[in-house]
Design a protein that fits this description.
Number of helices: 8
Helix content: 40-55%
Distance between the termini: 45 Å
Strand content: 15-25%
Radius of gyration: 18 Å
Strand order of the largest sheet: 1-7-6-5-4-2-3
Number of strands: 7
Structural class: alpha+beta
Order of helices and strands: HHEHEEHHHHEEEEH
Length: 239
């Protein structure tokens, strides 16, 4: 009987939190972590056991992982020394170059890849999810974080889309393991243009949010459900 109730609870329709019911889409201001802290945070995500960073460009049948199949052991990740961070930086640069070349049919310049790499490493942080939750008066939690770098075909624009489950109340959270905890509410946070010519883009980090009620056990499923909207945005250039 208790299992039946849990299943019913999982698939019952939940209204959006009060702070988002009137406007499930909008913008909010966040702040990126200091450079070195951001690089360490990125390395921790990049070398995580589960792949959490993916790449999408026009014409691609599906998103592709940007992380290696193997990396430093969890013991080394705990240290996050400069050598581990530099290794993450190098592998991420290599993977970005390869994916852009395959998807866009042109070899990107080292300058463009370096700019995208630097800004993406700063943007791929759970901090923006926590900032969103606090801004919207939700619980300070961001579950199953997932990151997608979206690049336009002409390489004039790239965005970091951060996905995660958020909660208004503890009762909304289900799952018995940290990596499986989820809620009925998924949010997509879209960064400014990572390839903007403005040197001040990181100083005013305004993100677009899109929130929806969802029935999904994993954030990967939630991202797949959002893929038609992402592809539409890529094709028309409107987010």
């Amino acid at each position: 009987c208790s299992q039946v109730k849990q299943v019913e609870s999982l698939f019952s329709k939940e209204p959006l939190p009060a702070s988002l019911a009137a406007a499930s889409r909008g913008k909010f201001q966040s702040q990126l972590p200091p450079s070195e802290e951001g690089r360490r945070d990125f390395a921790r995500i990049f070398f995580a056991d589960q792949r959490k960073i993916f790449f999408l460009a026009p014409g691609m049948p599906s998103m592709r992982p940007l992380q290696p199949t193997g990396g430093p052991s969890s013991a080394h990740i705990g240290d996050l020394n400069e050598q581990v961070v530099e290794r993450a930086d190098a592998l991420f640069t290599e993977s970005l170059s390869l994916q852009i070349a395959q998807a866009c049919g042109t070899i990107p310049s080292p300058e463009l890849v370096d700019l995208l790499k630097q800004r993406a490493m700063a943007a791929l942080t759970v901090n923006v999810g926590i900032d969103f939750a606090l801004t919207m008066k939700l619980m300070p939690t961001f579950l199953q974080p997932f990151f997608l770098i979206v690049v336009m075909a002409d390489l004039s624009e790239a965005r970091a889309a951060t996905y995660g489950f958020v909660a208004e109340k503890p009762k909304h959270i289900v799952g018995d393991r940290p990596e499986s905890k989820r809620t009925p509410f998924c949010v997509r946070l879209l960064s400014p243009n990572l390839l903007s010519s403005s040197a001040d883009v990181a100083k005013s980090w305004e993100l677009q949010y899109s929130m929806r009620e969802i029935r999904s056990a994993t954030i990967m499923q939630a991202v797949e459900m959002d893929m038609p909207k992402l592809r539409e945005s890529i094709s028309n250039g409107r987010w």
